[in-house]
Amino acid sequence: MISGITIISLLVVGACAADDDYEEVGADCVNLDNQLPDGSYEVVDEDLCDDDGTVRYHGSHGAYGWYYGGARSGTKVSKGTTVRPSDVQITTRKGTVIQRGGFGGRGSSGS
To answer: Which one of 5, 17, 30, 35 is least enclosed by Cβ atoms within 10 Å?
Structure first.
């Protein structure tokens, strides 16, 4: 006879095992205070952005944050979003994982 706790444990393990099927989204660190006329943003060094998705302010130098899923052309990125997606793995252009996808992933949103 299988107990309720055993069934729940098996469901949790199954959900965790399915984590390998998450979607991957790229992220670029941009100066959010400097949107270009064509709607794109200038990509800056990713050390200026926090991994937790919050916008980082550097006085009069700007507000830096992640831009998710954009199409990059040279040093500009467009056609993405500043809203942090949930249940996906987010990886920077340098290969740093800033959010793990699937069960247990951080699902917060940035601006």
So the answer is: 5
